[in-house]
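To: structure desk
From: M.T.
Subject: fold request, one chain
Message: Could you run this one when you get a chance? Sequence is below, nothing fancy, just the single chain.
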Amino acid sequence: MKTTIILVLTAVAVAAFAFHRQGRLMELKEETRMLERKSSVSPSTRARQEPVVEQPDAPAAQVELVSETMVEAFIAFQTRGRSRDPEMAERMKRLLLAAKDLSARDMAKVMNTLFTDARLAGIERDEIIQACREIMGGTAPFAWREYLISHRELPDWQKLFEAATRQCMVADSKRTLELIEQESARGNPEVATTNMRQSVLLALAASDPDKMLARAVSPAFTADPDALAHIGGFVDDQLKKPADHQRFLDALRRAQEKNPSAMLDKIREDYVREMSNQLAAWPFEE
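Reply: Done. Structure tokens follow.
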């Protein structure tokens, strides 16, 4: 039942999410351009100088709409399962449009409602968290991530935080990497895990391969071999166009010329092997 509720809630949300995703991405791109227009002070220095800009709170009625719709969704799927409900699909669309403007404080209000509402007494806390991870994390990933930072008491917190960071990477990798730089400069240990290091490298593979490779041979990463295990093979998933692959290969060549290392050789070996496997399986007759 637990898996069914989460899967169905997510499935209903996907179609509605596409409706507003493009607009949200444009907003995030503009925010990124504003960050890039700032002074050339390094991210680590700027992190010590400036606080992270928080998302403003949404109107109370908007927060209430999200909370009530989430409650109704849980009740509906608990009682009717996978049965088609056009009215609920429309409500989920309104939920997603409202949820994209929530701040971390708004998220806290929604979660508190879901945890304490008597109508959801039969639903486990973990089910609520996982459903919100998929829906809220996919709709307002940065606010959801910020909410998690202030609620480390949640079960499996590190996994939730890492998943939220990956969702932020998908929405806006540059903004997410800047947040990680700020948090790293402050000494936050949650951004120094193996999974987080892997996520950072893979995000940089497409956006800034030179920086990715420089990080790969830095002491923090070479001291964590698990973060670099087969990383070259995973790069293929991040590069979508031939020009992206060419840019990565050019960056890899420059890195090897500047600072030859066994780690760079391993990245190249894994990358070439994965690309060869992809080509070997390609249906050329089509």
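Reply (cont.): The CA atoms of residues 23 and 225 lie 39 Å apart. Let me know if you need anything else for the meeting.
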